[in-house]
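Posting this for the archive.
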Amino acid sequence: MFSQRLSLPTVIDLCRMLRHQISAGLSLHQVMTQQSQRGPGAVRSLAARVSEAIRGGRSLSTALDDEKAVLPPLFLSLVK
């Protein structure tokens, strides 16, 4: 499957969404599952893959290691 790197505005929106929903008390798995179903179209497939990885016991950092083609290097570095 061919994936494109997310645009900067999309990554910014993803960061804001993560901040707000985690601050509201949702778990990371809940946030990613919700975004895979109702999030912006560009984020849905990424969120679904990350949600499945987290559900499988992987950390966010290792789940995002598989997403190097989709997420900018700075975002990945900040997560680690």
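The chain has a mean pLDDT of 92. The two ends are 26 Å apart (CA to CA).
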